[in-house]
Design a protein that fits this description.
Layout: E1 12-14, E2 25-27, E3 34-36, E4 42-48, E5 51-58, E6 61-69, H1 81-88, E7 91-95, E8 101-110, E9 115-125, E10 128-135, E11 140-141, E12 144-152, E13 158-167, E14 177-184, E15 191-198, E16 206-207, E17 210-211, E18 218-221, E19 227-231, E20 236-237, E21 244-246, E22 248-252, E23 259-264, E24 272-282, E25 288-297, E26 303-314, E27 317-324, E28 337-347, E29 353-361, E30 377-383, E31 386-393, E32 401-411, E33 414-426, E34 432-442, E35 482-486, E36 495-498, E37 504-508, E38 519-524, E39 533-538, E40 546-549, E41 556-560, E42 570-575, E43 584-589, E44 596-600, E45 607-612, E46 623-627, E47 636-640, E48 647-651, H2 653-657, E49 669-670, E50 680-685, E51 694-699, E52 704-709, H3 711-715, E53 722-729, E54 736-741, E55 750-755, E56 763-766, H4 768-772, E57 779-782, E58 792-794
Parallel strand pairs: 21-24
Antiparallel strand pairs: 1-34, 2-4, 3-4, 4-5, 5-6, 7-8, 8-9, 9-10, 9-11, 12-13, 13-14, 14-15, 16-17, 18-19, 19-22, 20-21, 22-23, 24-25, 25-26, 26-27, 28-29, 29-30, 30-31, 32-33, 33-34, 35-36, 35-58, 36-37, 38-39, 39-40, 40-41, 42-43, 43-44, 44-45, 46-47, 47-48, 48-49, 50-51, 51-52, 52-53, ...
């Protein structure tokens, strides 16, 4: 292997012209996605959309090889810092001491009640990248794993740590619980241990509907194969514009069992972030050290100042020193200026500590976006007793130009840097609205003269692969067009039906001009003319009469009172529960009633089945949605309580249709943390076009938080796997009402949404491309009823 000497001048290379589309390539790892192998090969691990790509530097260019593809923590496009973070935390590159390249991928497996953590282990062999094993820790948790960090040990061993969430963070005063766990194969077989209890490190910052968790976990392994971990166990926030605190912790098994120790707590009791981001390393002489980002805060929670700190351990005691406390030229207009963000610590060939970090600069810096504006690559080197600082990748205009995950790798005096450049569009408050991403490198070497020869023998595949699953029955389309109905208020309760071009098809006042209690509805072709018909039910306070209107003309065509005397209100959905081509009507009782579900024949409006979705006495009634979750041609019934625990129960439509009675299709699961007791709104539709209807839920109260769960993953035993998991908007606390529709008439499932309760009369349309990209920014706000300010139901 031959490496050409680098030029003395630092050169930056942007990768957006090499990997397209822009915004799809992000780091796979937070501290170690860029590495030199023990033999001098420079490599980088990145996500290109859902593909995990290994890059090695050969003859002055990057050579790309796809290791695998994955969908659990990734996106086809990345449009926010949170999406980038999800992907970065899910994969790790490791060069073992013999020079073999390994990749670890974090996955999770649903067992019917809990998630089990799974790590897919890939190795570069003479036959290319191959999966060598699935590592199966014994740990299980309600919400599954979220972070993986790995490091090489002596004698070809690998160690890693991972976090799991057992109780999810639900608000500013509840940061949940989780565990930090450890694994190693130093003894031959994999062994596992729990290190410490933590908060929910997946989403442990909640403020004004925002979520941001930059508390990096870092792992180093010494020459004796002892592990050293830097982590943050918690993030405390008492409420919007109030106290914020976090603590930097250290854990090690060097004494034979795991022990933890405080490295840095908030000075004078805070408020401060002492553990917002840290990395750990062990010097060639065995010195354990940590670099960390410390933020002092005002009593309101707003940042006051920051420092880059260097901590060393000697005789069981940590000593701290300030490395930097001001930015190197990267400043905003009139806002605070900070430094030390995202530090990466490593020891160079001379044994000197080096810290790669970034500055922050902004104006009108908000608490919830306090870390959005990190912007350039700087490096600090300890020479003797003094730290020298230099900027290797400068940037200006922090409102629009940022950089995430600054890292460096060193071999034989060659120091190479990498980072993720973000170009951001901001709103009138200077908060990020959208971002495009591009990887950048500084001081790249020529690399190897030729691709390395890999001698590791290939993995022998199994003799007979399992047969593929049967193809699902094609999904029936969701209704074409869309509609809105007025909630209770000063107006008569009307329904307005719109064509795909946005023009009004018709409107009806199903319960007369004097009824103002609100109306809910569904759309389905009951009369067989190819046009979805309108099915309406009243909210609580009126006799529960179902009315059906011709979708082509708006004329009434049917009416029924299935439960005379009932005035508790219904929710309604429609679909082919009792067989393809014959939509049925599904009712769920409103909050004041028992959680009863009823299925009515779509032609005669006769009751075909009625059952409790949840045990009698469960509060909240039953919200209902209908769709073919398992692809068998029969619509299944999805239910959730109107308030109380956010439990999703799904009932098999085929079992009802064939006389087998009421049967669960899949195990129940929580859409949100069980501590969330304010109800769920539901809809169903095949978002990703795989032939399986997906379950879409939104909060009935609180921030407008939507989760889309893959139907295919549910029925194939993978458990609740997210296709989308986002806040749709901020500034409201009334939840979100949802409906899956074909808004554009193109055969694709879109999502229409509106705030719950009294509102502005606006609705939000997320087309299918935005849903597939998990991009809530790809939306259109519609004002279907100009001049009317009222709460709306959508469908």
């Amino acid at each position: 292997m031959h490496c050409r000497a680098p030029s003395p001048a630092l050169q930056a290379e942007r990768l957006e012209d090499r990997l397209t589309p822009a915004g799809s390539v992000v780091p796979a790892g937070q501290f170690n996605y860029l590495q030199y192998s023990p033999t001098g090969e420079l490599a980088e691990l990145v996500w290109n959309g859902n593909a995990l790509v290994f890059q090695d530097r050969v003859a002055g260019a990057w050579q790309d090889t796809t290791v695998t593809t994955a969908a659990t923590f990734t996106r086809s496009q990345y449009g926010s810092a949170a999406q980038v973070e999800d992907a970065a935390r899910a994969a790790q590159l490791v060069f073992t001491s013999d020079g073999t390249a390994h990749v670890l991928l974090l996955e999770k497996q649903w067992n019917g009640s809990l998630y089990a953590t799974r790590i897919e282990h890939f190795e570069r062999t003479s036959a290319g990248w191959q999966k060598v094993e699935t590592i199966a820790p014994p740990m299980q948790s309600l919400w599954g794993p979220n972070t993986l960090v790995a490091a090489a040990g002596p004698n070809g061993s690998i160690s890693f740590v991972f976090t799991e969430t057992s109780v999810a963070a639900t608000g500013v005063s509840n940061f949940g619980t989780g565990t930090l766990n450890y694994a190693t194969n130093a003894g031959g077989a994999w062994s596992f241990a729990a290190i410490a209890t933590t908060a929910d490190l997946n989403q442990d910052v909640w403020e004004s509907g925002a979520r941001w968790a930059p508390r990096f976990i870092s792992l180093a392994v010494d020459a004796a194969n002892h592990a050293h971990v830097a982590y943050t166990p918690e993030f405390y926030i008492a409420g919007a514009f109030s106290t914020i605190d976090s603590t930097l912790m250290y854990a090690t098994n060097s004494g034979g069992s795991w022990a933890t120790q405080v490295v840095q707590a908030p000075i004078n009791g805070g408020p401060a972030d002492a553990g917002l981001g840290a990395s750990i390393a062990v010097s060639p002489t065995g010195q354990v050290a940590i670099a960390s980002y410390y933020v002092q805060r005002y009593a309101t929670g707003s940042p006051e100042g920051s420092e880059l700190l260097y901590h060393t351990l000697a005789n069981g005691t940590w000593t701290s020193a300030v490395v930097a406390n001001g930015p190197g030229g990267y400043v905003g207009a009139d806002g605070p200026h900070y430094t030390g963000f995202a530090p990466q610590l490593f020891f160079d060939a001379q044994g000197r500590p080096n810290i790669v970090f970034s500055d922050e600069g902004a104006q009108h810096l908000t608490v919830s976006h306090a870390n959005e504006f990190s912007g350039q690559i700087r490096v600090a080197t300890l020479a003797g007793s003094a730290w020298s600082l230099r900027t290797v990748f400068p940037q200006t205009d922090p409102i629009h130009n940022q950089l995430y995950y600054p890292v460096a790798a060193e071999y034989g005096g060659q120091l190479t840097f990498a980072g993720l450049v973000a170009t951001t569009t901001v709103d009138s408050n200077l908060d990020p609205v959208s971002a495009s991403y591009a990887m950048t490198n500084v001081n790249l070497p020529y690399g190897l003269a030729a691709a390395p020869v890999v001698t590791t023998p290939p993995v022998v595949p199994p003799a007979v692969p399992p047969p593929p699953p049967a193809a699902p029955v094609a999904q029936a389309a969701v209704p074409t067009g869309w509609a809105v109905a007025l909630d209770s208020g000063p107006y008569a309760s009307q329904v307005f039906v719109f064509r795909p071009d946005g023009s009004l098809a018709f409107s009806v006042t199903p319960y007369g001009p004097s009824y103002t209690g609100g109306v809910r509805f569904a759309l389905a072709d009951l009369n067989g003319d190819g046009v979805p018909d309108l099915i309406t039910v009243p909210a609580a306070g009126a006799e529960g009469v179902i009315r059906v209107f011709d979708g082509a003309t708006g004329a009434p065509i049917a009416s029924a009172d299935p439960f005379p005397g009932y005035t508790g209100g219904f929710f309604v959905a429609a679909g082919d529960v009792y067989g393809p081509g014959h939509p049925d009507i599904v009712l769920g009782t409103d909050q004041i009633a028992l959680p009863v579900v009823a299925v009515l024949d779509g032609h005669g409006l006769n009751v075909l089945a009625a059952f409790f979705a949840f045990p009698a006495g469960t509060p909240g009634g039953a919200r209902v949605a209908v769709g073919d979750i398992n692809g068998d041609g029969y619509a299944d019934i999805v239910t959730a309580p109107g308030n109380g625990v956010p439990l999703i129960s799904t009932f098999d439509g085929r079992a009802l249709a064939t006389g087998l009675g009421v049967q669960k299709l899949i195990p129940d699961y929580f859409l949100y943390p069980p501590q969330y007791l304010l109800g769920v709104n539901l809809t169903v539709g095949d978002i990703n076009g795989d032939g399986y209807a997906d379950i879409i839920g939104g909060t009935a109260t609180g921030p407008a938080y939507v989760r889309v769960v893959s139907g295919q993953a549910l029925v194939t035993g993978q458990g609740p796997t997210d296709l989308m998991d986002e806040f749709l908007w901020s500034g409201t606390n009334s939840g979100v009402r949802l409906a899956a529709v074909d808004a554009h008439g193109n055969g694709q499932v879109d999502l229409i949404a509106a705030p719950g309760g009294p509102a502005s009369g606006y609705v939000e349309l997320l087309d299918n491309s935005a849903l597939r990209a998990n991009n809530p920014l790809g939306i259109a706000w519609l004002d279907p009823l100009p001049g009317i300010t009222a709460g709306l139901y959508v469908g």
